[in-house]
Amino acid sequence: MGSTGQQAGRLVDYFAVCGLDIATGLKPGQFSGDTDHIHPLLRGYKSQVLTHYPSIVDWNPFDHDGVNMLCMPKGMSLCTQRDKRQPKFHSFIMTKEDGTRTYGAALTFYEIVTDLDIISQLETLQIKYVDFSRRRKTSTPTTPSHHVVLESLSPKIERRIISSPRRASSPAISIHSPKPRRRMTPTSTPTHSARHFDPKKDKLYISKCICLILQVPFIQACQKFLEQIYDAVKSQAPPELPLECYIYNILYEVPRPPPGRSMVFSAISRNISCQRPSGSELPLCDFSMRQMFQLLGVENVIQLFTCALLENQILLVSRDYQRLMLIAECISTLLFPFQWQHVYVPILPASMLHFLDAPVPFMMGLHLDNTMDQTQILMELPNQASLCYVDIDNHYVELPEDMPQLPDIHQLHHDLCEVLHKYHISAEPSSEPLYVPSTSQTKTTNTIDWSKLQTELTLVGSTGRNLNLETGIETDHDSSYFSSPSRGESPTSSMPALPTKQDILRNNEIVSKVAAIVQRTGVIQSISEFEDSNSNTDSEQSSPTDADMKLDLDELLFGAAIREIFLYKLVGLLRHYETFVIQPMTHSLESWIANREHMTNFDKTAFLSDQPEAYLPFLSPFTETQMFATFIDNKIIANWEEKEDSLRIFDARIVEHFPASAPQTPTVEIVPFTSEAESTIRMRARSIDYSAVAPHQLASLQPDLADNSQNSHKPGIFPKLHDEVLLKQPHTPNNTRHRNSAQWRRKDRQQQHSEHLQLDPQEREQYIQQAKRGNSQQVQLSHYDQVQTNWKFVEGLLKECKIKTKKMLVSKMGQEAVELGHGDVNRSGVEENTLIASLCDLLERIFSHGITKKQGKSALWFHLISYRKLREKRGDTDYSEKPVVVPGWDGSLRRRNSSSQAPELIMYPLPTDLLFDMRNVEKMTQIKTDVGHARAFVRLALERKLLHKHLQQLVSDYELCKRKYKRYSFLRTEEEKEQFLFHLLSLNAVDYFCFTNSFTTSVVVYQVIIIHSRKFQSMTTANAYVIVAGEIAESGKIPMHKGSSQIMFEHSNLGVLTTIRIGHDNSGLSPRWMVDSVLIRNEVTGHMYRFPCGRWIGRGVDDGSLERLLVGELIEHPSDTEEPARGMSTPPIPSSPSPSPSRQIKGPMKPDRDMIQEMLTDAVNSIVKHFYKPEKERGHLTVLLCGERGLVKCMEYVLQHGFRSARLFRNNFFVWDFLEKVSKYLDSLDCDDEGRLSSQQEKRARRTFCHTIDEINFGAHMAGKDGKFQLLVCIGIRDHMLHQWLPLLAETPVATSMYDECSFFHSHSALDFLVNLLMQLEEFTITLESSITKGLEL
Hints:
Blueprint: E1 14-19, E2 48-53, H1 64-71, E3 78-80, E4 88-95, E5 101-112, H2 116-139, H3 155-162, H4 192-195, E6 204-214, H5 219-234, H6 243-253, E7 262-266, E8 271-275, H7 289-296, H8 298-309, E9 313-318, H9 321-334, E10 343-345, E11 362-367, H10 374-379, E12 387-391, E13 396-398, H11 409-422, H12 450-460, H13 501-507, H14 509-520, H15 528-540, H16 544-573, H17 589-594, H18 604-609, H19 616-622, H20 626-637, H21 645-657, H22 674-686, E14 690-691, H23 703-711, H24 723-726, H25 734-757, H26 761-773, H27 783-813, H28 815-819, H29 832-848, H30 859-874, H31 914-922, H32 930-943, H33 947-955, H34 958-964, H35 974-985, H36 994-998, E15 1003-1012, E16 1024-1030, E17 1034-1039, E18 1046-1052, E19 1057-1064, E20 1073-1082, E21 1088-1097, E22 1107-1111, E23 1113-1115, H37 1153-1172, H38 1181-1186, H39 1191-1200, H40 1215-1229, H41 1233-1236, H42 1240-1259, H43 1265-1278, H44 1282-1290, H45 1293-1298, H46 1308-1319
Parallel strand pairs: 7-14, 9-11, 9-12, 10-11
Antiparallel strand pairs: 1-2, 1-6, 3-6, 4-5, 5-6, 7-8, 12-13, 15-18, 15-20, 16-17, 16-19, 19-22, 20-21, 21-23
């Protein structure tokens, strides 16, 4: 029968019953596949929707297949009286094509089978199974013990698992070996003898399901109603009214509470309450957060929450349907304001197992039977690297590989643990069974479980009397402990009266013995303590409705607190998101939707540039997720339509937690506003808004039908309901509908009146007068008040500027600032990126204060655009880049005069006009918003140390400020403006790389200049190239133009430059090339780097190197007072025209041993200090290793010291020649007795040394001998082998013949000094840049 739209506001839409159709009989499940090898009692059988009421409702058509599939996902199951038959509740969700969701609450229980045809069919299936097992046993003599057949799986999955080549692997071994071993739930397949059904001795039971379908997920209320229905069915006495009355009541007479309201309705034995959050609160979630934390624990919940935010594939596995639904819904709820946008199937039916192969993000729940091996299931899943596997029953979560952590995860963990401790919940997962029906009461006090005690007395009592009644064992009227009703005996007729608890305590022998033992331990003084405690328990249980409501209230309060904490976390991460939303230019929603795929809606680059570096691994992939894109789309759609509730609440939380007037830094601790949510929930629970009509005798239920229903009551069997009663929906006149809505409005007035009564008389009168005036009269401030208010704003902005600039200086100076007294030792770990983002916020507020008309989201960028337009109007736009001028050098590369003194090289700096920086910022195509452009401009100016100069240039234009700003604005207060600029000038004292390190994908122009020796100024005829490497990337090989010493190239941001490789292919008539140094300038930031060389490049000269690795140093910015033409002059060039004598073993004066030891000690100490500094304060390790006074250079001095005259050998003998001779000698030791008798440590040091020498000679063929020595030292330091190689070198006859007695190799004390000093570096993990080990894999 159809229904009208007037009932669209009722709590429940449908009541349905699923189970066995007697006419159809036992048929295998539709997706069970071949089940001949499975015992009939373990199979799943096809179920049907037996009945549902009403037949259909207009707003929610009934889905027969969907309801049947989700009520009994694996079909009906059979069991005997020997099996456990507790009822099990689970909820489910159905998603329609339009995205709307319908919820279901289902209770599955077992009914005894009395139909002889069904029993006969089972016997036939058993016979076939036994015959099949016998034939299989004869055809297959042995079967592996680990071969487990999965029940109720689709043929596809079953076939995949059986044919798996890895099925012999141990189930205890994790799929990913570095991760902890997964704990698997053991499978328990009963033997055939235990499973065999004997119709003469056994009783057969089959599962049946009763279900409620509803649109708003009041799951807890529905669970309680269904459990009370089941309690009435299994009860010995029939309920007070026929079941049709209770079902009719919840279907047609219990309304759905409006938002912000609470309601109570009556069921069979107890009242049930529920409440619905208002529009300003978090949406309804009627799933227990408490149970989620008990199942998984805090750490696993946080990790699972992170996986969901990053849209990983999530597979939930459990042997309980409700646990699957619970975890899926709770995690989805915690994502608020975001929504899971991909495949969402909390309970995966057998027909949808192929969804596990989907290459898209999903959140699915897989139910395991007792015969299913979850190890094999996991091993067969594809894409395990991106899969989050959640074993709910074993409290285990296996994360995807390389998953980034949630920012500030420790603070989130701490906040959650505080809430858990408040509600007496452990932060670790519980090891106890967690499925507890809502009707049972959990006690934490020291009381006796009387049902268990009475059961034990029944089984082991010496009197032989059966002391157990209904409460002793689970109500099973067909078990061997009770008389069978089918034999004409009443289940309770032969039972003696149940003795009282006091009688059992005083008179039972077993209890007396137990009490005596407990009394001796000192736990109790006498048995009367138990009598008192249990009498108190009886009194506590006298009001089950109040106890239920208290538990429900605790669940709501705990869930609200947990959700507020997670929401506060997301608010903190995304509190500035609105600034970077790119608003569309179109004025039509239809036009925007049509072009949505071709538009960028969020300025990700600018947003990430403002975040702390530690946040980027998480925020970068999160901003690429579908849920974040949908969230931004909804934000833009709100320009034309009303905001979605989730977006409105989230934006309101940002305003509450991070008001615009508060400093926007993470150091501000704001406690989540959980108290307001708790007070609202308590108020609704304390003052129920509406009481629904109680169940009553139905007029449509004839008296004879009602009597038949009561008389035909059979305990444990769900009765056949009367369709003519439940299908006939009540007629609801319009006045009744208006009367119901009037009850809610009346409750509003009563609540408002009660709030007014709590006010003081003066406050109440003020409230009434304000209500009478309305909004027509607004408070008018006098001119004096306006001036004072604006003056306070100006003072606040100036004070904040002073605080922020000081924080930035102290943070950048680090320990030096502490020593100077400008900070404390326990400095806050606020990152540089966050402080600069905070400065950008301050500048925006300063340029917004008193503005007459703001266009766009950024007042600073709007002011910059206006300034440029004014300059263009005046004709003052000469900000073109100056060319590099090299006096004394013409295009033919000939010297201008014959003087022996080479001309001085001079490079002009980049323009310092702000229009030049604006042009570079506008070239950054990855920035889409005005706010992004403004922040990039501030970062660039700060890095160039021009922020003070640019802003001074802006605010000094009186004409522009007068036209754009009001008189009281900050930019028109002369004294405060000067102080503001002075604070910004102090930032020039430190170096920032905030632009270089933030915009890693922007394209940058680099200029390279090769400076030749003053004596050998000719260019090489070979094909030269350079390879530039920085902290972010490496450029690759960049060819130089023949005959040119200068080149410019474009590349994505390389970061702070560290090394370059310069070389050629040794072609042409005169390939030799004498390079003094290389200059490289970033044409955007103006940073200049010098890479000293002073060596020949070419075969047959110097050490024969065709490629050299040069380590760079940053040249300081020129001061503003220096002349531009002299500002970037090159450093002095060494006077010696020949290669540095320190590079060769021959030569004049060399440092003595003491000086070498001192230099080496300084080099090692510099490396040690490098690792003990905070990561942000460390320099470049490459400079400490390969720089001019680095460790490599000091080791070269060590090996040069005491070397005999080069005349005994040959000219230009290098250290590498000595090392190659030693390598040949050590290779020969493995063939004689001396080598075989060496210790394992000596053998290892010898083999690694020879192997490293061979690999360097093979892989670094372009490097010269000094370059190969540099590589050997770096690898020896990295692998912590250098201090083991030195004694090995000293013991060889090669060292004896080539070094004097004064060398380090011939002095035991000097050699011990070297070894002990280098051993200090063993505790550090040294990572070499790829530019150092280029072309070599070791």
